[in-house]
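note to self — DONT lose this again. spent like an hour looking for the file last time. sequence + predicted structure for the chain T wanted, 152 res
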Amino acid sequence: MKELLLRQKQVLLFIIAGALSAIVEIGSFKILSVHLPQIFIHENNFHGIHYPLSNIFSTSCGIITNYFLSIWFVFERGKHSKRREFAYFMSVSFLSTILSLIVFQMFFRFVFTDVINVGFFVFSQEMISKIAAILLVSMLNYTVKKKVIFNG
């Protein structure tokens, strides 16, 4: 078991960094999705897009958190210069953000059409859609970041 953990250390660290980034992203999404509709009346539904600003701002918070956790704990540097590495990371993250927004909208409209009650906590439609989008996109992110940006 210990050998398996040592071999999969990078994957385990990526999962931990991703989980911490997801906590930042989900927490900021919850705060923003509650308060931004009070400022921007169309935040709940902007031409069929639900919570666009909350999604973009919270995803940005998660990306920045994930970048720093990735370079500090998960991946080794050296394949690219710091500037190029950051540019690649942000480019992949930008594309991931667009994918995450699309996946969120699909989950929100078609998959999670009601709240999910787990007994001690009730997940709203937007929260469960956000969590599912993060999980789906993070699998793609690991592969791309490992193989393209950092030492693969």
